[in-house]
Amino acid sequence: MKKYLIPFLAFALLGLVASFGGPHASVSAMQQTHSVNQVFPSDGRMAISSLPFTIDQCGSYFLTDCLTGVSGSHGIQIQADDVTLDLNGFSLIGVAGSWSGIDAGFNNLKNIVVKNGTIRDWGQDGINVGQNGANGPVNGHFSNLKLFNNGGNGLDAGRASTVVDCSAHLNGAVGILSHDHSLLIRCRSSENQFGIVTVSDSVVKDCSAFNNAQDGITTGDGAVVENCTSGQNGGFGFNVPNSLLRGNTSRANSSNWNAPASSMIENH
């Protein structure tokens, strides 16, 4: 079973993020993948109608139905820059022994967009984009997603990412995780190991974290955390070193605040 460290010091946060990624098996040469098998005639988007599926060229893709993965494989693996994946209101559903629902974590990719659907029951992460940390994908955008009951992180969004209107519930590691220079808005994270974790120089706004086993909202240095609520978490409500906190509410956590050093606090 993976072990997770409670991030008490800002300098330990990068090690904390690395530990959340966990082992992600490389794709076997024998893994069967499906190629693009339909082009939507009105706008040129490419359809995905079965799993596993590999995206190896830029473009816009969409689901045609709720799709179920297979053991020993990611659901959708992204290997190209400038990809937009619209789940179209459908779900990507994992099975026992499956890897991540969507994986782009081992490629230094740019401009990955995932939106509008549910990723649940995968053996590793729901979405893994940030596995390589500072060397991983950059400038991803994730919106209107539900990350539910995945074995690892719900969403690992990578660096300089934007995460909007996403929720994470009952995931085995971090509900919503991002790296340096990221923006998280109107996100909710509950009943995970950690609620929301981001690294340095990020903004977390109008988010909530409840009933997580460890900390509710954790950042690195230089973050701005504004109008967020954190409650009934097993660790700190807010673990935010050297950051600006404004208009936040923390209640009924094991400890409500950990804001050492030069943090500026203007909270309820």
Give short descriptive properties of this protein:
268 residues; globular; disordered N terminus; 18-stranded parallel β-sheet; 10-stranded parallel β-sheet; mainly beta; 36% strand; 3% helix
Structural commentary:
With 268 residues, this protein is mainly β. The chain has a domain at 33-199. It is 3% helix and 36% strand. The protein is built from one helix and 28 strands. The chain has an 18-stranded parallel β-sheet that branches. A ten-stranded parallel β-sheet has the order 2-5-8-10-12-15-18-21-24-27, with helices on one face. The radius of gyration is 18 Å and the shape is globular. Mean pLDDT is 86; it is low at 1-19 and 21-38.
Residue runs with pLDDT of under 50 for 5 or more positions: 1-19, 21-38
- The level of helicity is under 10%
How many DSSP-defined strands? 28
Q: Which class do the helix and strand fractions yield?
A: mainly beta
Topology as a string of helices (H) and strands (E) = HEEEEEEEEEEEEEEEEEEEEEEEEEEEE
Total helical segments: 1
The biggest sheet amounts to: 18 strands, parallel
